[in-house]
Design a protein that fits this description.
This protein has 868 residues and is α+β, with helices and mostly antiparallel strands. The chain contains 30 helices and twelve strands. A hairpin with a 2-residue loop joins strand 4 and strand 5.
Length: 868
């Protein structure tokens, strides 16, 4: 007997083996489940962008260096629109000043641990810094003095002064003066892991990170300024809950009647977007619950039995609980991919259970008793379940070679979950069936049970019977139109292959939000009227003290800024750096003459200008350059866009940086300059994640194809299975390309779902067919029997998964809705492919397998022969 026949014989007798040890099996399952449930309380999540990058990634290293010197770049930017139409009106200036004071006072009064303690500094039009010369000294004054002016002349003077400052227009007021800006600087992402040890200081010194220098509290970035700390600083990740608590506290001030009556608000930034992200997460929780309810309802309609609902659901629930619970005990940290892991366990796990239950019911309706029906079902389905489990596990484990740890965790966890679902289906499901299964019977049952069964029969349509009637007509149709079917599917594959070449990998921050979400309008308002909704940082480390006192260096940086502004006007609103402050300070010191808005030509003049500026506003200086003038940064203010555009722009800007710093390196050879910042991480991370997922998906397809070739022991059968699997994959992504639907980090989740269900159905179909055709070599009889038996289970699983996934199409998030639309479409296409295209290919190529010996056939098919 061959290894395959031995394996099939083993699976056929599994129900009898487990019954001998059923109490041990049940006790093991109960104890392990209790242990896994206890582990659920230890689940750890990392939802940060930084978690997707390797620790030594250049962008992460640059960001850590930037934050260790200059603090966080993760702020809240509140665009406001005065209802009187003028940000420079007396009422508007007075109200925005009071709003800032309200937030600052609340942050000072808040207890330790309050989200408001995240505030470092708040800058508005009222307190925006303006450089002036007083008694030969450079001083920094607030744009608006102690009293808000009330006369039109004084207000016009304030507006004129603000317009002359390069850093104020578009940052704190729009060109038409209809919008204003409030910059709430925070310490999000800039709190070191060993913060307490680094900031240990006498008790009278204030703790870092409250309300900013102007309130008497140290700025967090000061703790790491200069070259005192040479080792790399690691920072604590920011939880979504931190953002949500912060924006909720800020909105308490914004929504006070005295402010809400005067302003409309359009906040942008991570804290502002988090509340919408949380809404989407809550919505997804509801939709996933609805998906589960629909799948349960479909199970009920298909099997018309509570046990037919309970056992498959319990199998996937236990598989997921064991996977997550045991991983948590091992200290594994999960990411958002945990949702996909659960979905994959649901897809593959419930498919195994339904194939076995469908076969059991099929044989029961053919007249077999309970134990014989279980044995016959295992004989026809368990081997295919084993093959699908192995194939799916190998495909998932192929991603462990990626350098991205979260994807490695996803691959391993999903493979383990699929394996557990298979083990539950094979070793526990028979015991579940022994406990409770109410099959349909040809003759009515007497008593209350019979009345209840009859009532259920009237209320619930016989979907399984309808499916069987439909399946009986499939083979005659395929046999008659096999060439037309093959031609139609081949043409569809060709067209969709072209569509796949048009697929655009693109993640747009704004597009992730619901179409009617206020945050979309906020982003549009900030992009159209102010400095944009995003920022990028160019981190500069010249590697030598006081290198930024060199006019040559500052002029090269100035040229770089102008190059960036000139080359990317569609995206870049403005750049800002120490050079701009230098030029403005030098102009102010020279009677504000326009021609003096320049970098001084001599090192002495530049050093003196920077010294005077440092004395006038040391806090602002520390945000722009380190104490030893060796490190600085350029802030690039950007409009929102997608990762498809920005990843290329980042590369182009890095090229511009390399060209600009080439001359600097001749004098300062240790110079380093790189693009960084939270928005950079988001764009690069999303693009990198999407492309990595696609590459790993391609690896999985290749791996599965090789496995299929080996499984069926025939090149012809392997090629037929590979071509059949290609249809739902190419159709799904081909349609996305043809309809210009971008593939982002959300819709990329469709890929493993499509592959998982396609491979599952193909293996089950061809395994049944191989078993049947090897009996006598009759292709037509084998196909008829396979379509009726395996076709029922394939139809059941496809209906359940398609209807379940379709629930996601109602999501307000475009990305999640696309997962529902194209995921369910792929499942239905896979069903049509298995019932039409695959049989057509079998007939056209005359696919046969090695015929078994007579004795083996009789021994192996005793149960199914009794049913037939």
């Amino acid at each position: 007997m061959s290894a395959a026949h031995s394996l099939m014989h083993y699976f056929e007798n599994v129900p009898d083996h487990v019954r001998k040890y059923k109490w041990l099996v049940w006790l093991t399952v109960i104890a392990a489940t209790a242990f896994a449930i206890a582990g659920l309380g230890r689940v750890r999540f990392d939802m940060t962008i930084e978690g997707w990058f390797a620790d030594n990634d250049p962008t992460i290293v640059a960001m850590d260096g930037f934050r260790s010197r200059f603090g966080s770049d993760d702020h809240l930017y509140i665009v406001y629109k005065p209802k009187d139409g003028d940000v420079f009106s007396h009422d508007s200036l007075a109200a925005v000043r009071k709003l800032r004071e309200d937030l600052l006072q609340r942050s000072l009064d808040a207890p330790d641990g309050s989200p408001l303690k995240r505030i470092v500094k708040i800058t508005t039009l009222a307190n925006a810094p303006v450089l002036k010369v007083e008694e030969d000294a450079l001083v920094s004054r607030n744009l608006v003095g102690a009293q808000v002016p009330s006369s039109p002349e004084e207000l016009a003077e304030v507006a004129s002064t603000a317009l002359q400052q390069r850093s104020l227009p578009l940052q704190y007021f729009s060109k038409d003066h209809k919008y204003g800006g409030i910059l709430v600087e925070t310490n999000f992402g800039a709190i070191p892991v060993d913060f307490e040890a680094r900031t240990a200081k006498p008790a009278e010194a204030s703790a870092t990170g409250a309300a900013g220098a102007e309130t008497g509290v140290d700025n967090l970035s000061m703790s790491f300024d200069g070259k005192a700390v040479e080792e790399r600083v690691r920072f604590k990740p920011t939880d979504l809950g931190d953002y949500l608590g912060f924006i909720n506290e800020v909105k308490l001030s914004l929504n006070k009647p005295e402010f809400a009556s005067r302003f409309d608000y359009y906040p942008v930034g991570n804290p502002a977007s988090t509340e919408y992200n949380m809404q989407v997460l809550q919505e997804m929780g509801t939709l996933y619950l609805a998906m589960l309810v629909i799948m349960v309802a479909v199970l009920w309609f298909l099997f018309r039995s509570f046990s037919g609902v309970l056992w498959p659901s319990l199998v996937v629930i236990l598989s997921a609980v064991w996977t997550i619970g045991f991983a948590s005990w091992l200290g594994v940290t999960f990411t958002a991919f945990l949702i996909l892991t659960v979905v994959m366990i649901l897809v593959i796990g419930i498919a195994d259970s339904i194939h076995i239950l469908s076969g059991y019911e099929y044989f029961r309706n053919k007249g077999l008793e309970h134990k014989e029906a279980v044995r016959a079902s295992f004989h026809s389905s368990a081997n295919a379940c084993f093959l699908t489990a192995i194939t799916s596990m190998v495909a998932m484990l192929s991603v462990v070679f990626t350098p991205i740890v979260p994807i490695q965790v996803f691959g391993i966890a999903t493979a383990v979950g699929i394996g557990l679902a298979f083990l539950f289906s094979i070793y526990v499901l028979p015991l579940m069936l022994d406990l409770w299964w109410v099959p349909r019977r040809a003759q009515p049952v007497a008593g209350l049970r019979g009345k209840l069964s009859a009532a259920v029969g009237k209320l619930v349509p016989n979907v399984a019977g309808f499916v069987q009637k439909m399946l009986k007509g499939v083979f005659p149709f395929v046999d008659k139109y096999k060439y037309a079917i093959a031609g139609l599917f081949t043409a569809a594959i060709v067209v969709c292959l072209y569509g796949m070449t048009q697929v655009r990998v693109d993640t747009d921050v704004k597009a992730q939000f619901p179409k009617r979400a206020q945050i979309r309008e906020n982003i549009d308002v900030a992009d159209a009227n102010m400095m944009g909704s995003q920022t990028l940082e160019i981190y500069l480390d010249l590697g030598q003290e006081y290198a930024l006192h060199d006019p040559f260096v500052q002029k090269r940086i100035d040229e770089l800024q102008r190059t960036i502004e000139r080359k990317y006007p569609k995206y870049v609103v403005r750049t800002l750096s120490l050079v701009d402050v230098t030029k403005k300070s030098y102009q102010t010191l020279n009677e504000d003459r326009p021609e003096m808005y320049a970098v001084p030509d001599t090192r002495e003049a530049l050093a003196n200008t920077l010294f005077l500026f440092d004395n006038s506003n040391p806090d602002q200086r520390r945000k722009m350059v380190s104490d030893d003038y060796s490190e600085s940064h350029i802030t690039v203010y950007l409009r929102n866009g997608g990762s498809y555009e920005y990843t290329q722009i980042f590369k182009d800007i890095q090229h511009d940086i390399d060209l600009a710093t080439a001359d600097i390196k001749r004098v300062y050879p240790d110079t380093k300059a790189s693009v960084t910042g939270l928005f950079t991480l988001m764009m690069q991370g999303a693009d990198y994640l999407s492309w990595t997922s696609l590459n790993e998906f391609g690896t999985a397809i290749l791996t599965v194809s090789v496995i299929l070739l080996l499984i069926f022991g025939s090149l012809k059968a392997g090629l037929v299975s590979v071509v059949s699997n290609a249809v739902p994959v190419t159709l799904t992504f081909g349609l996305m390309g043809l309809l210009d639907v971008p593939l982002d980090f959300t819709t990329v989740l469709i890929a493993p779902i499509v592959l998982g269900i396609a491979v599952d159905d193909t293996i089950h179909f061809l395994s049944h067919y191989k078993h049947e055709v090897s009996r006598d070599g009759d292709i037509r009889r084998a196909l008829i029997q396979t379509i009726e038996e395996a076709g029922q289970a394939v139809t059941f699983t496809s209906l359940i998964l398609a209807l379940g996934l379709s629930v996601l199409s109602f999501s307000s998030s475009v990305g999640n809705a696309n997962v529902g639309i194209y995921g369910s479409l792929a499942v239905l296409v896979g069903l049509v492919c298995e019932l039409l295209f695959l049989p057509a290919l079998v007939l056209i190529f005359g696919l046969k397998f090695e015929k078994r010996g007579a004795a083996s056939a009789v021994a192996g098919d005793a149960a199914t022969e009794a049913a037939h």
